[in-house]
Each structure stands twice: as structure tokens, then as C-alpha cells.
Design brief:
Layout: H1 2-31, E1 49-50, E2 54-55, E3 61-68, E4 78-85, E5 97-101, E6 113-123, E7 132-138, H2 151-164
Antiparallel strand pairs: 1-3, 2-3, 3-4, 5-6, 6-7
Subcellular location: Secreted
Signal peptide: 1-30
Domain Pleiotrophin/Midkine N-terminal: 32-93
């Protein structure tokens, strides 16, 4: 009987400890303040509008472009950005306009030129680009390819030269 009373006291103590623990946790949770959700900033600033890239010197390489945007509450309405114009790019179409070109056409015997067409692939920084462009270049001389010795014959010749030495 004593053993039964002792078990009953231990059970009561454990139950009281559990109730106390639950009360402490709920009090802690109640004391926490919920963080207010961040309000989305509404900005009246417009999108950046960029000028074409202007090389620092020459007609290609490193340069700058100017950006502007509108809005009464904008902290910054103009800024300058570094840019680069590839020196091997077709400057006549602008550095901001990238085209996918087709293969060169046949040579026009009247003009001695061949042409190909390019379709706009990408316009950088809202550049005003033509949808399609056509370029021409001189046909060049039509020459017959020189007959080449086969590799096997060349190797045999080198072997004979070594044997003679």
C-alpha cells in the first residue's frame, strides 16, 4: 500500500510539472509580438531608359551610356553606366542591336557582291533596332584550289630523306 501511495505521488508530481511546463510555454508565446508584414513599397519611379553606348575613344571598346527615369519621389533620376562595344561588331547597325545572320548568298555577277540577311535576335537597353537588315560584301576572287600531296606520300618522302642522311 505504501508503494501504491508513493507511485500516486510521483504521478501527481509529474502531472503538475507537465501542467506548469505547458503554462510557461503558452505565456512565452503570448508575450511575443507578431511581426507586421512589410508593406510593398509603391514607387512612382519609371523604368530606366538608356542611351546607346558611346565609346570613350575610337568607334569600339569601353564606353558609357546615360540612363534616365521619371518620378517625383525618385532618389535618382539619371545615372551613367559603363558599357562595351565589341570591335568586331557590325557598327552600322548599332552596338545595342544583335542579329542572327543567314548564310551568304550567291555572288551577283553584275555587282560582284554577295549579300545576306539578319533577323533581330536581341535589342539591348530598349534600343530602337530594325527587325531585319541586309549586308553585302565583295565576292572575292574565284580560284581553283591547289592540289595537295596526300599525307601518306609526305610521310614516305620524309622517311626517305632521313634514310639518306
Amino acid at each position: 500500500m505504501q508503494q501504491q501511495q508513493q507511485q500516486c505521488r510521483m504521478f501527481t508530481a509529474a502531472l503538475l510539472a507537465l501542467v506548469f511546463l505547458l503554462a510557461a510555454v503558452s505565456t512565452t508565446e503570448a508575450g511575443k509580438k507578431e511581426k507586421p508584414e512589410k508593406k510593398a513599397k509603391k514607387s512612382d519611379c519609371g523604368e530606366w531608359q538608356w542611351s546607346v553606348c558611346v565609346p570613350t575613344s575610337g568607334d569600339c571598346g569601353l564606353g558609357t551610356r546615360e540612363g534616365t527615369r521619371t518620378g517625383a519621389e525618385c532618389k535618382q533620376t539619371t545615372k551613367t553606366q559603363k558599357c562595351k562595344i565589341p570591335c568586331n561588331w557590325k557598327k552600322q547597325f548599332g552596338a545595342e542591336c544583335k542579329y542572327q545572320f543567314q548564310a551568304w548568298g550567291e555572288c551577283d555577277l553584275n555587282t560582284a557582291l554577295k549579300t545576306r540577311t539578319g533577323n533581330l535576335k536581341r535589342a539591348l537597353h530598349n534600343a530602337d533596332c530594325q527587325k531585319t537588315v541586309t549586308i553585302s560584301k565583295p565576292c572575292g576572287k574565284l580560284t581553283k584550289p591547289k592540289p595537295q600531296e596526300s599525307k601518306k606520300k609526305k610521310k614516305e618522302g620524309k622517311k626517305q630523306e632521313k634514310m639518306l642522311d
